[in-house]
């Protein structure tokens, strides 16, 4: 039996207990994957990140939900890098991180005397959704009329696959009550995908998009408060399907978590890159708590 410190950092906020909480374990090399999964289950964060050494990059991070390992997690990455920076465990401002979604460049900038973590995501991918709009609406607890028929429902990924569902209004987002156990049958092309509805109505006037994120039932969680990877991919979705100007670059502000009283903001930067886009997110974090878990 060993004791493991799990630090809670709240990403995409500067206020403790807002934004999205993540567990951070700083000495992941000392743990087996089975122990990591056990710690993530006991910690009960939507994601717990384990910082490790890497032969391919400056460092490596593995991510675990209470139910399974993830390839990439935006908010847990922001939390981990903020923890390393504030504990003086990073020797430089620009570095690479090995993840199961690839080796990704990161940077820590100082804005108004506070660290802001900038995270490059994997190249965006989109795949068609062939399921029923009516069944999807029912699984989300809304009406099919609440889904915007002028925009496509697609699977999207900048590291993790999620079903992107465009809504007509903020009211529809507020009313959603997902029936999570219906997701795998509904998402027949990708049964383990999450669902990320969004709308262009926002709570904050400076925001461009409002999102919610409902987890795969295999993850052991229900809703993610503020989602970095999904904010990145809906930024790429905006550039692909919404931006009429077909801009070479976009800076989008994505809000999430208001329904959970976990108000958070993600900055998403989209740059045209050949036939695709590069996707970078940026956000802040704050230390919130610590727990000791026995494994």
What does this molecule look like?
The chain is built from six helices and 19 strands. The protein folds into two domains: 3-120 and 283-294, Diaminopimelate Epimerase, Chain A, domain 1 (Roll), CATH 3.10.310; 125-282, Diaminopimelate Epimerase, Chain A, domain 1 (Roll). The chain is α+β, with helices and mostly antiparallel strands. The mean pLDDT is 97. The termini are close together. β7 (102-111) and β8 form a beta hairpin. The strands form two sheets. The protein has a 17-stranded mixed β-sheet that branches. Strands 14-15 form a two-stranded antiparallel ribbon. The longest helix is centred in the last third of the chain and has 15 residues, at 228-242.
Structural features:
295 residues, Diaminopimelate Epimerase, Chain A, domain 1, 19 strands, 6 helices, 17-stranded mixed β-sheet, 39% strand, alpha+beta
């Amino acid at each position: 039996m060993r004791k493991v410190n799990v630090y809670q950092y709240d990403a995409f906020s500067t206020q403790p207990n807002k934004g999205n909480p993540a567990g951070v374990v700083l000495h992941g090399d000392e743990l087996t994957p089975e122990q990591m999964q056990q710690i993530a289950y006991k910690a009960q964060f939507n994601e717990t990140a384990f910082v490790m050494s890497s032969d391919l990059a400056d460092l490596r991070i593995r991510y675990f939900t209470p139910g399974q390992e993830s390839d990439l997690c935006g908010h847990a990455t922001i939390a981990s890098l903020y923890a390393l920076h504030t504990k003086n465990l990073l020797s430089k401002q620009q570095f690479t991180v090995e993840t199961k979604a690839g080796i990704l460049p990161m940077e820590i900038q100082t804005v108004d005397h506070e660290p802001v973590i900038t995270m490059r995501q994997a190249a965006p991918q989109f795949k068609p959704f062939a399921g029923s709009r009516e069944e999807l609406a029912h699984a989300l607890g809304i009406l099919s009329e609440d889904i915007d028929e002028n925009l496509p429902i697609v699977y999207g990924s900048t590291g993790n696959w999620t079903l992107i569902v465009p809504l007509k209004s903020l009211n529809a987002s507020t009313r959603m009550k997902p029936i999570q156990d219906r997701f795998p049958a509904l998402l027949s092309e990708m049964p383990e995908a999450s669902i990320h509805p969004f709308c262009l109505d926002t709570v904050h006037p400076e925001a461009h998009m409002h999102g919610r994120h409902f987890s795969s039932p295999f993850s052991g969680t229900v809703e993610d408060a503020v989602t970095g990877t999904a904010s990145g991919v809906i930024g790429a979705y905006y550039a692909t399907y919404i931006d009429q100007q077909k801009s070479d670059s976009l800076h989008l502000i994505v809000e999430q978590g208001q329904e959970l009283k976990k108000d958070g903001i993600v900055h998403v930067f989209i740059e045209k890159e050949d036939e695709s886009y590069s996707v970078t997110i940026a956000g802040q974090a704050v230390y919130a708590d610590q727990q000791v878990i026995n494994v």
